[in-house]
Amino acid sequence: MSNVEEYKERIDIHTKKKVKFKFQVNFGKTIDNYLRWKQDILMDIYENDFVFLIGWEFLDENEKVLYSHNSENYKRKYILLFEMELILSFLDLLKENFKKIYPILWKDSSLTNDYFSNMYPKIKTNIEIRYLLLDLKRLHQYYLTDFEKERISLVKENVKELEKKIQRRFIPIESYMKLFYKTNFQKINAYDIRREIFSYL
After folding, report:
1. 150 and 81 in contact (C-beta within 8 Å)?
2. Other C-beta atoms within 10 Å of 87: how many?
3. If you placed Cys at 148, which of 28, 101, 102, 144 could pair as Cys (CB 3.0 to 4.6 Å)?
4. What range defines the domain where residue 136 resides?
5. CA-CA distance, 48 to 108, in Å (whole number)?
6. Whether pTM exceeds 0.85
7. Does 189 reside within a domain?
């Protein structure tokens, strides 16, 4: 297997059951919909894993050797790849709506307390990114085609870049907290602000 068509044929095994989720009014609803969508598809895959067993039976004998003649290695690898693609579909939506989800704080006049009080969706997003990075690590224990190696490498690179982009959006919050609040969250005395700014710089 060395091209995108063959890769999609093995990965996209439940196309008819996949429903494209859309960005909701708020990000909390969006990620809740995504998590339900992902769970439903993965549950369906685990309950109907005979698809992989059929694929294994028709697999070329030379390729079976690469999986140590173990159908579980074959199945687990493609389930991980499939889960990777599901998470990527969410991250694509995240990138499309990035400015709305992670506004530049000092430039956003419409910013409300919801940004600070409702961190749930952003925490869930970080967890999904962590799951994806863990899956990418776990995939290296299985035989991978050259195409799959390239795909995994590209995904890892893009996810790391997205992670950095998210972290950069939180720098203004950290700067504000460091400059104007003490460690016990008491406001700094006005006479000490200049000294704190200079020590920070």
Report:
1. no
2. 19
3. 144
4. 4-170
5. 47
6. no
7. no
